[in-house]
Fold Cell envelope biogenesis protein OmpA.
Amino acid sequence: MTDTANTTHVTTSNVGALIRTGVAATVAASIATMAVAAAGNLAGISLELGGAPIPVTGFGVLTAVFSLIGVIIAASLARFARRPRLTFVRTTVVLTVLSLVPDVIADAGAATKTLLMLTHLVAAAIMIPAVARRLAA
């Protein structure tokens, strides 16, 4: 009996589709976090952190930066992980939870902290499923 290794090779088209999906989800997540921040601000929630105002566009920029890092993680896992989808979901859920820690300890009011955490969760809710769908199970 001969054992053969069952390896998965990621093709360029798969990585391309993953990146295209990731970039589209990044744009959607950035717009969504800016909308949540703007809505919260319109509702009277302060966007000040430690006495310094956070511009609404800052939410979109930071969402884009960290979302694109997530796409890079996904592309790496697609190439090297045995179970890329499961590994990606587990990794990004842990990173999302860790991203809430600075919000909890931030020098801001409770409503502002809650709004900040909500933007993280909104971005994750858009990014994680969209990118995970493009990864092999």
